């Protein structure tokens, strides 16, 4: 499955934005976690100092340690006092000595309070002389533990980090919930922008398609931007101008050449006919003149056909349309065709409908098209006992005309080509029968000018069938 350029841009934008947003989410949540941990440390520091002050007051006031812990719990439930020891007496002795020295003396400090639930020594926590902050997991919870030596006391306090975790989790969930919507908006936005960006390209494609259908006169309109696409449209239009001009020159040349050849050929024909009138001519000379006359006739026929086609190509083809009784026209043409066919032993059956079957068209051209088809049906028939069937019948918008003949099959690869100029399946047979290779090209051209198409069906041992329609009204397509 190939996705459209627009859809691909939208999907890629959404994917890249998704990755960027997820990375952003990771960085943000880390930052939030860090900031909140710093806040927790600050809180712990404040509590530690408060605790020491309270301990001093309480000792002076003779209050119990349990009350001290109670005061703390009332202030903040998730803050725990793990241990409080009095090190006043040892302070001077230890000074700023090594942590080892302190560690060694831990057991000797008089403990004022010890949280019964926390093991001693606490897991993963070290006593350090300048205090330490650690994150540890204990009983399924994550704690931030601060150990400080301060004003003659050593305090260890812990704060439950659940709140921080919950905050970060909430942030991530909110973010992830909003992510699909954000990606949808980004995708739609990219789809819209890509649509606007490819619009000029679509115009160029539409024009290129129209060129094949309507001809070289088409131009890319409405792409006037001064960017790459605008320049592409401009270059294409210039190229089409040059192509159109070249084609016009070629077509004009064929029309001019055909026209120029007409007069000398007519003169030649006249002179040969005059020479044939001369009774003093030898029999051999007469035979040569008759042969020449026939060839000049063929040449004139080719030139006539070429002139008609090239005039049509050059746009100088004027149709003289009128209301025509196609049944009458068909009857007249088939009447003559029956005689020509019978001379070659071919039987022609014609069902020309009833009179009054009216169509709109150019009578001269339609007669030429039907005659060409009938001439071919005779030319390319069986050598013996050949048959031709002509049928005119009513259809939805007008009338269907069918001309069928027995004879050689037209191969599938030749079916389109036989309507090209000078294409002949069997060149020898065509030439022998006086063919020019332009008969069907003219038929196709005439029908195109009547907004119609011709179809051919051909089968082995059966022959060929040419079918086309004519409408009651030319614009009734
Ligand atoms: P031509 O002057 O050679 O008849 P056309 O354009 O009329 O030129 O036809 C092109 C070719 O199509 C012919 O040379 C012939 O091979 C083939 N053809 C045309 N009409 C028929 C037909 N009715 N049956 C079989 N072949 C045909």
Q: Helices, strands, pairings?
A:
Blueprint: H1 5-61, H2 65-75, E1 79-86, H3 88-94, H4 99-105, E2 111-114, E3 132-138, E4 141-150, E5 153-160, H5 162-214, H6 228-277, H7 283-313, E6 321-325, H8 326-343, E7 346-351, E8 358-362, H9 363-379, E9 386-394, E10 398-405, H10 427-432, H11 439-449, E11 454-459, E12 463-471
Parallel strand pairs: 7-9
Antiparallel strand pairs: 1-2, 1-5, 3-4, 4-5, 6-8, 9-10, 10-12, 11-12
The protein binds adenosine-5'-diphosphate (ADP).
The site of adenosine-5'-diphosphate has 22 residues, from helix 9 and helix 11.
Describe the overall structure.
With 477 residues, the chain is α+β, with helices and mostly antiparallel strands. It has three domains: 5-167, Beta-Lactamase (2-Layer Sandwich); 228-313, Orthogonal Bundle (Helix Hairpins); 321-476, Histidine kinase-like ATPase, C-terminal domain (Heat Shock Protein 90, 2-Layer Sandwich), CATH 3.30.565. The chain is built from eleven helices and twelve strands. It has helices at residues 5-61, 65-75, 88-94, 99-105, 162-214, 228-277, 283-313, 326-343, 363-379, 427-432, 439-449; strands at residues 79-86, 111-114, 132-138, 141-150, 153-160, 321-325, 346-351, 358-362, 386-394, 398-405, 454-459, 463-471. Strands 2-1-5-4-3 form a five-stranded antiparallel β-sheet, with helices on one face. It has a five-stranded mixed β-sheet with strand order 7-9-10-12-11, with helices on one face. A hairpin with a 3-residue loop joins strand 9 (386-394) and strand 10. The protein is rod-shaped. The protein binds adenosine-5'-diphosphate. Adenosine-5'-diphosphate (ADP) is lined by residues 376-377, 379-380, 405, 407-408, 410, 418, 423-426, 430, 435-441, 464.
């Amino acid at each position: 499955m190939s996705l459209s350029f627009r859809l691909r841009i939208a999907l890629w934008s959404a994917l890249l934005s998704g990755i960027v947003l997820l990375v952003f989410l990771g960085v943000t949540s880390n930052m939030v976690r860090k900031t909140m941990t710093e806040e927790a440390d600050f809180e712990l520091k404040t509590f530690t100092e408060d605790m020491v002050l309270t301990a001093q007051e309480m000792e002076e006031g003779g209050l119990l340690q349990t009350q001290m812990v109670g005061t703390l719990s009332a202030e903040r439930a998730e803050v725990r006092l793990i241990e409080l020891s009095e090190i006043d007496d040892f302070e001077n002795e230890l000074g700023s000595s090594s942590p080892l020295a302190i560690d060694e003396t831990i057991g000797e400090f008089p403990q004022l309070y010890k949280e019964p639930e926390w093991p001693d020594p606490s897991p993963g926590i070290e006593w350090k002389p300048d205090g330490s902050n650690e994150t540890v997991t204990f009983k399924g919870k994550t704690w931030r533990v601060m150990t400080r030596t301060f004003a003659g006391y050593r305090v260890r306090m812990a704060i439950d980090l659940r709140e921080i975790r919950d905050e970060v989790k909430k942030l991530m969930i909110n973010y992830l919930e909003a992510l699909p919507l954000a990606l949808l908006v980004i995708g739609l936005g990219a789809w819209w922008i890509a649509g606007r960006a490819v619009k000029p390209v679509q115009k160029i494609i539409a024009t290129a398609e129209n060129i094949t259908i309507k001809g070289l006169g088409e131009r890319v309109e409405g792409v006037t931007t001064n960017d790459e696409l605008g320049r592409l449209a401009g270059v294409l239009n210039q190229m089409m101008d040059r192509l159109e001009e070249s084609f016009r020159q070629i077509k004009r040349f064929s029309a001019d050449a055909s026209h120029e050849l007409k007069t000398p050929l007519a003169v030649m024909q006249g002179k040969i006919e005059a020479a044939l009138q001369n009774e003093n001519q030898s029999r051999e000379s007469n035979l040569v003149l008759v042969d020449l006359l026939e060839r000049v006739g063929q040449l004139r026929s080719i030139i006539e056909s070429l002139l008609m086609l090239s005039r049509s190509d050059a746009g100088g083809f004027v149709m003289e349309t009128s209301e025509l009784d196609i049944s009458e026209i068909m009857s007249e043409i088939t009447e003559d065709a029956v005689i020509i066919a019978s001379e070659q032993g071919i039987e022609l059956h014609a069902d020309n409908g009833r009179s009054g079957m009216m169509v709109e068209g150019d009578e001269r051209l339609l007669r030429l098209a039907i005659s060409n088809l009938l001439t071919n049906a005779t030319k390319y028939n069986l050598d013996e006992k050949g048959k031709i069937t002509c049928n005119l019948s009513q259809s939805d918008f007008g009338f269907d005309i069918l001309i069928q003949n027995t004879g050689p099959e037209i191969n599938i690869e030749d079916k389109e080509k036989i309507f090209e100029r000078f294409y002949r399946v069997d060149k020898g047979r065509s030439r022998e029968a006086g063919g020019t290779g332009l008969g069907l090209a003219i038929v196709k051209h005439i029908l195109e000018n009547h907004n119609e198409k011709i179809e051919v069906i051909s089968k082995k041992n059966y022959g060929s069938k040419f079918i086309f329609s004519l409408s009651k009204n030319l614009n009734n397509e």
